[in-house]
UniProtKB/TrEMBL annotation:
Name of the protein in its database record: Vesicle-associated membrane protein
GO biological process, one term: vesicle-mediated transport
Annotated GO CC locations: cytoplasm; membrane
Protein origin, superkingdom: Eukaryota
Gene source species: Quillaja saponaria (Soap bark tree)
Gene3D superfamilies reported in the protein's UniProt record: 1.20.5.110
Its biological purpose: Involved in the targeting and/or fusion of transport vesicles to their target membrane.
InterPro entries: Synaptobrevin-like (IPR001388), Synaptobrevin-like_transport (IPR051097), V_SNARE_CC (IPR042855)
Entry's transmembrane regions: 45-64
Keywords: Coiled coil, Membrane, Protein transport, Transmembrane, Transmembrane helix, Transport
Domain V-SNARE coiled-coil homology: start-end pairs: 1-41
Length: 72
């Protein structure tokens, strides 16, 4: 009788192990997706800030030089 109980317990334990392994793989997949999404979002913010800075530098350049020719 104890051997049957142990066999059932081992089956339950194996099922729980497989479930936990599947959940871990799904967690890893979701983590990777979120990391990529956050990286792209971070890059977009950096590119927008860079664009604004370049635009401000261009405006300052044009106002100081009175156009694109800064030789005078």
């Amino acid at each position: 009788m104890k051997a049957i109980d142990r066999g059932e317990n081992l089956t339950i334990l194996a099922d729980k192990t497989q479930t936990l392994r599947s959940q871990a793989q799904e967690f890893k997949k979701q983590r990777t997706q979120i990391q990529r999404k956050m990286w792209y979002q971070n890059m977009k913010i950096k590119l927008v800030v860079l664009g604004i800075l370049l635009f401000l530098v261009l405006i300052i350049w044009l106002s100081v030089c009175h156009g694109f020719d800064c030789t005078n």
